[in-house]
Q: What sequence folds into this?
């Protein structure tokens, strides 16, 4: 059984639907990458899973349980976590406080998870007392990912984690995503750097106009001449 | 030197007292704004209501013969009045603001609703207590504390009342407690997180409804405290705090909306500015009359007492020109 499964999901923000039947299924061991042109519904798909917009058709299930239109305060305790693309840190709070907020739903000791995150991003340990708003873009992205991991999710969803980052940080962030996956966290992410992200994706989804156009493993999609021509810039 | 002591009593002591009241009031306004994103106009009336609740409790305590040595009964009942006002604040939210939020009302709708709550609360108080004034010190004495200044030729003493001293101590305790709550506790940090980025707080699984409840409890408790302090310093009347709700809002905005410590700084800034503006500076300038190149007039106040309220707005305009979102860079919308 898939960890997360979307079946013909239709939804939007009240007007015409943006998603017109999206199908996605990934396991906890997978790194799933959603690519596609602007306006294809990539980010909208993640928001639909996380209850941030209304799903009007189809269904979403997590670990076999129906979660269609469930709100984040119900989803986070179940093991879903989401890193939005923008405004994804509490800028006025310290790095450590950002991590604590990610663990808000937990009652046990947060320290081991925090240490795991600090080991993953050593620069955050150095800057743990600093306000997140004072950090560079790449470091903020680390805080945002750290915050999302503090709830010990089984599925981590990331909306364009490498957007606007310098090449050095893009590589570091993508490498850490692979490591997080190896630690047993399923990944579902939207990426603008499609070729780079698909290279390590075990599941790839090419969306266009709110529908699946191609589905396969990352390398399969890269090798597909039609995908390459239409969506990966040749 | 006597002139300086006079200045100290009328500007510094009075400024600290007024600043404490403004600060405690403004913190409540700023917390509600930070979490719920609307200007809660009825905050002044929660203060007045806190004052009347404390007044009733005091009458009850006196009827039962309960008294604490050295403490005015108005202060003894303060914690109970704070709890009761917090409950009223939760009720006001549940009854009036929560249903509007559930329908996705805009901040301006909530603001108008809070003006309605203002009128309603004031009406209720008038219905029960009439429109006259009441004093916490009908039967008890307001003790005056005089501190002599051990300097030659100084005959004036530094004067303040015992309730004023207790007020300043209570404000300090409240500020320290609030600071510890917001920086050390899980819920306090969640409040800051929600004021910082409500969407991300929701995404993090923070229980938004719980944070809203805690906000009303703190706002209600602090409103009662500010109201009781104001009533102890002057008198209790139905429009007690309605008259100072504008400087309180000015204090919250000057400090940066949504920033509790900004509100405290703003409260003291406006408190001191008001007392300094109505002070008769002739008192200080007269001894220098020979040295000054101009004649010292008989009275030289920056504004007459009746115009005290305008001082808050002058400060507001000046600060916002310099820093458009307040001293501590608060929310802009």
A:
């Amino acid at each position: 059984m898939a960890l997360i499964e979307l079946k013909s999901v239709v939804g939007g923000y009240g007007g015409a639907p943006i998603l017109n039947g999206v199908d996605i299924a990934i396991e906890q061991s997978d790194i799933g990458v959603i690519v596609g042109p602007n306006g294809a519904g990539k980010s909208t798909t993640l928001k639909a899973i996380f209850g941030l917009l209304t799903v009007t058709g189809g269904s979403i299930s997590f670990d076999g349980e129906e979660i269609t239109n469930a709100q984040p305060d119900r989803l986070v305790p179940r093991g879903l976590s989401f890193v939005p693309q923008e405004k994804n840190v509490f800028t006025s709070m310290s790095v450590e406080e950002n991590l604590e907020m990610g663990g808000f739903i937990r009652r046990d000791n947060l320290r081991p998870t925090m240490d795991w995150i600090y080991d993953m991003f050593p620069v955050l340990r150095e800057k743990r007392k600093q306000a997140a708003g004072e950090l560079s873009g790449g470091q903020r992205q680390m805080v945002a990912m750290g915050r999302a991991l503090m709830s010990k999710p089984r599925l981590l969803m990331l909306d364009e984690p490498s957007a606007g980052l310098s090449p050095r940080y893009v590589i570091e962030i993508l490498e850490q995503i692979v490591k997080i996956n190896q630690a047993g966290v399923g990944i579902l992410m939207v990426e603008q750097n499609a070729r780079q992200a698909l290279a390590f994706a075990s599941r790839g989804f090419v969306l266009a106009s709110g529908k699946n156009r191609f589905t396969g493993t990352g390398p399969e999609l890269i090798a597909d001449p039609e995908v390459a021509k239409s969506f990966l810039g040749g | 030197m006597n002139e300086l002591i006079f200045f100290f009593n009328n500007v510094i002591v009075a400024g600290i007292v007024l600043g404490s009241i403004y600060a405690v009031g403004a913190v409540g306004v700023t917390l509600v704004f930070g979490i719920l994103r609307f200007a809660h106009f009825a905050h002044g009336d929660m203060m007045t209501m806190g004052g009347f609740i404390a007044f009733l409790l005091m009458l009850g305590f006196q009827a039962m013969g309960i008294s604490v040595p050295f403490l005015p009964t108005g202060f003894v009942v303060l914690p109970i009045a704070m709890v009761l006002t917090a409950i009223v604040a939760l009720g006001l939210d549940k009854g009036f603001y929560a249903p509007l939020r559930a329908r996705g009302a805009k901040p301006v709708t909530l603001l108008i609703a809070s003006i309605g709550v203002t009128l309603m609360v004031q009406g209720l108080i008038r219905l029960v207590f009439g429109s006259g004034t009441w004093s916490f010190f009908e039967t008890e004495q307001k003790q005056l504390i005089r501190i002599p200044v051990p300097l030659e030729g100084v005959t004036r003493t530094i004067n303040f009342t015992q309730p004023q001293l207790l007020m300043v101590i209570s404000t300090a305790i409240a500020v320290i407690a609030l600071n510890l709550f917001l920086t050390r506790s899980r819920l306090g940090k969640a409040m800051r997180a929600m004021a910082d980025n409500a969407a991300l707080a929701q995404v993090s699984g923070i229980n938004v409804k719980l944070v809203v409840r805690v906000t009303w409890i703190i706002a209600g408790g602090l409103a009662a405290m500010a109201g009781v302090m104001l009533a102890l310093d002057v008198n209790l009347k139905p429009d007690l705090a309605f008259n100072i709700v504008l400087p309180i809002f000015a204090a919250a905005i000057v400090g940066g909306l949504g920033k509790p410590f900004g509100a405290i700084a703003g409260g003291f800034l406006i408190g001191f500015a008001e007392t300094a503006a109505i002070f008769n500076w002739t008192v200080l300038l007269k001894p220098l009359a020979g040295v000054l190149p101009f004649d010292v007039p008989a009275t030289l106040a920056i504004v007459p007492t009746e115009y005290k309220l305008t001082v808050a707005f002058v400060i507001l305009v000046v600060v916002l020109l310099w820093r458009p979102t307040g001293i501590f860079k608060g929310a802009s919308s």
Notes: The domain at 1-79+154-161+186-234 of chain A is CATH 3.40.50.300 (Rossmann fold).
